[in-house]
Amino acid sequence: MKKQRSSNRKAVIRQGAEDYLLVTLVSFAITVAGTRLFLELTGYPQLGGGELHIAHVLWGGLFLFAAALVLLVYANRWAKMLGALFAGIGVGLFIDEVGKFITSTNDYFYPSAAPIVYAVFLLTVLVYLIFRRPPKITPREALYYILQDLEEVLDHDLSTDEREKVLAELKEVRQSNAPPELDRLAKELEDYLAVAQVSNSPDRPPILEHYRRNLRAWERKWLSERRFRAVITGGFVALGVWALYFPVSVLLSIRTPAELQRLLNDLVSDRLVRNPSGLNWFEWRVGLEGAVGLVFLITAALLALGKDRRGIPFALAALMINLTVVNLLVFYFDQFSTIAIATVQFLLLIGVLRFRSLYAKPGPADVTDPAKQQQ
Question: Which long-range contacts (CB under 8 A, 24 or more apart) does 347-353 make?
Fold first, then answer.
């Protein structure tokens, strides 16, 4: 009697998961920033009348519910992207009101709310980075992705290039010592696709891939190594000056006891310093921001001189420390006014990583190693 194989319910990462997470991440950030800006410009209006106040956390819940419904009801690929967008908007509207739910007074402007929102954003970035790494694909996972690609057949939108891509993936499955039933399924799909009708319309890439191609074309046209280096060097100079501005202004403003007392009174009246530990956090903020500012300027000098082997590690380390540690303190004391500069820091981090992959000069060990030269 033939032994029945046990079921396999092991989780499979959805094809294109990194793109859906990116949409959620970006819509989350834009929603929080846009909500705070709108409320600031309109004087924090009350939606409702009398005893009613329809807080935007309710709209966040509505968007999250809509995201769940779209993903549960529709199987089309566009539904996943729409669900990711709704999820990001919903989480942004929800988390923006976190101050009301961690205080007994429902304080929307509670100082710790901004760092909490930023910390949640960083955790979302971490999730994105984890799933952005291409995993090792098993034959079972490969067939999951192939069956998703066959949606194009049902939509009468299968192009010649897409068919060749799927056939190549099926060939890899059959050559990877897949279990007999998976090999048989791959063979049946190969036979079907060999005679499947293809669309005469040009291949339409996913929307994010379309923008990536346009961005790469713009990059090839306008960002030569010299221009790219100038852009990121200028970025580090600007960030370094900006990071040093606050610590220097604090040091200059406490030259007399009266000025020091005025600074402390402002911190206490704004409820930013409530105890000795709060004052310690302020001192850490001044010291760390000043130190990172100096490192930014040193990094700019190294990159300007073409010393990429030292400059790029300096750049990445300084940006990561600034984004994950210093910004938590800055968000506490400056609240959401620091969103713009944090956005610039994230963009500069992406720029440094891209510059490293395109133009970074090899170190001396790479140049003198004969084995690497032969490669």
Answer: 348/232, 348/235, 348/236, 348/239, 348/319, 349/316, 349/319, 349/320, 349/323, 351/228, 351/231, 351/232, 351/235, 352/232, 352/312, 352/315, 352/316, 352/319, 353/316
